[in-house]
Amino acid sequence: MTQFAHAGHIARAALEAVAYQTRDVVEALERDAGIPMRTLRVDGGMVVNELLMQFQSDILHVPVTRPHVLETTALGAAYAAGLAVGHWQGAEALVRNWRVARTWEPAMEEDRRMQLTASWHKALTRAFGWTS
Asked: N or C: at which end does the chain have fewer Cβ atoms within 10 angstroms?
C-alpha cells in the first residue's frame, strides 16, 4: 500500500481476494474430482455486488449465475420443512422453483487473467511468515 490508497482501494482488494480465494478452492476441487466446473452458482449477501460477480466470472473463466432468491441457505431450510410436512411431493418440485436472476459471462482476456492470478499467488507467497 502507498499513501495514496484509500478506503475504496481496500474494499476492492477485499472483494477481489474473495474471487481469488474462490478460484483457489475451485481449482483444488477440480483437481480432486477430475471434473472441470462449467458454471458457478452463487448466493448470499455479497452476490448483489455486480463488480464482484463480473470479476469472479473473469477470474474463474466460467459463467456466474445468481438466483432470484439470494439467501438459499434459508430457502433450503424452508424446503426441508415443506418436504417434511408434505407441502412439496419431492425434490423435483423444488428444482422447478429455482430461477436465474442474472448471469455474468467471462470478459477478461486470458493473458490478463493469468497475469492477475500470478500476482495473487505472488502476494500470498510474500505474506507467509509475517507472524511467528
From this structure: C
Could you report the per-residue pLDDT of 1-42, keeping only the tens digit for each? 788 889 999 999 999 999 999 999 999 999 999 999 999 999
**Strand pairing class (40-41; 64-67):** parallel
Q: Are strands 64-67 and 100-104 parallel, antiparallel or unpaired?
A: antiparallel
Tell me the C-alpha distance between 62 and 69, whole Å: 21
Other CB atoms within 10 A of residue 60 CB: 20
Q: What single string gives the DSSP state of each residue in 37-60?
A: ---EE--SGGGG-HHHHHHHHHHH
Which cell goes with 29? 476441487
Q: Residues 23, 58: contact at Cβ < 8 Å? A: no
Cα separations in angstroms, 68 against 41, 48, 65? 11, 11, 10
- The DSSP output letter for 64 is E
SS3 88: coil
